[in-house]
Amino acid sequence: MSRDVNDIVMDQMVASDWPEIRSIYLEGIETGNATFDTEVPSWEEWDQKYLQDCRLVAKIGKDVIGWAALLPTSSKKAFAGAAELSIYLSKASTGKGIGTKLMTYMIAESEAKGFWTLQSGIFPENKGSIRLHENAGFVEVGVRERIGKLNGVWRDVVLLERRSRVVGLD
To answer: How many CA atoms, within 13 angstroms, populate the side-chain half-sphere of residue 35?
Structure first.
């Protein structure tokens, strides 16, 4: 199957996409550099955790090859326009511009839904993800040193943030 960026279709995520989303998430977990999670949650747990708005999948034909979704950063009303971005690509889809296309769609979708800040926490070793975020206008806010343990090892997280140029300017 071709994995060319021109063949990619962006679509709203639906529950029936979960098996492929789960598989991509598991690939990320297995790298040891994508998440503090050590196992994939159930669809019900995942669905409860992520915001209902801004859930996207990248597809070639009917095959999901990447996904992006937003997590709330706070329950406070004042932070309703700030969200944490999760973005994952299948291992076979990295390095082909697909992440850039998915990120571009997510930014547009998030701004259309009123989000003025997107943030991501990324392990410093995940240089491809950091580069993807920086190329999309995210800037490094700082490094959260030894913020959590993964498999018994303290890990740092680079905190990146993107402020909208069209939402939240008042």
So the answer is: 16
